[in-house]
Design a protein that fits this description.
There is one protein chain. The chain has four helices and eight strands; from the N terminus they run αββαβββαβββα. The protein has about 180 residues and is of the alpha+beta class. Strands 3-4-5 form a three-stranded antiparallel sheet. α2 packs across α3. The two termini are about 30 Å apart.
Length: about 180
Amino acid sequence: MNLQEQIGALETGVDQLIQAVTAPRDVEDASDQHVNGTTAAQTEQPVEAAVDAVDAAAGAHVEQQADEKPTLHIERPGQNEITMSIGGKSVTLHPLQVGQLIEELSNARASMEPEVPPDLPAGWRFVSTRNPVMAVQKQTNGDRLLVMRHTGHGWVPFQFSPDMVIQMYMMLTQK
């Protein structure tokens, strides 16, 4: 997947996140972009600024007419940074902050309805990691925790029951 496809996939995911927000939220004055004399993009917590930008866009969305929606614009000004603009607010994220944002979005998505579809969607775009670094831990209930390092998502944990471990072994060793 090339860079433009990756950016497109990220834009699509964040667009879906924005659309999922339907309830109004209490948002501080969205026009106040300064914190102690610095802009949100200059603070030590740009991920929080990105979340604030999403909150502000969601609040603005509720106040706008039904046919007007805030738009997400993502740019990649350099190899190690992404600039996100939502509803007129921008924030630049560097690799560690992008990882934090992915983790926060992942945690939020895990509790949302509807769940992620049980089957792979047709046309689904992805970046795979060949031979990822892995770690395994035995849990007190007999389950196995498998944590795999994906180049885009970071460390991704999966917990398997003993029966599932056997099924996975059989699937992986089938000829």
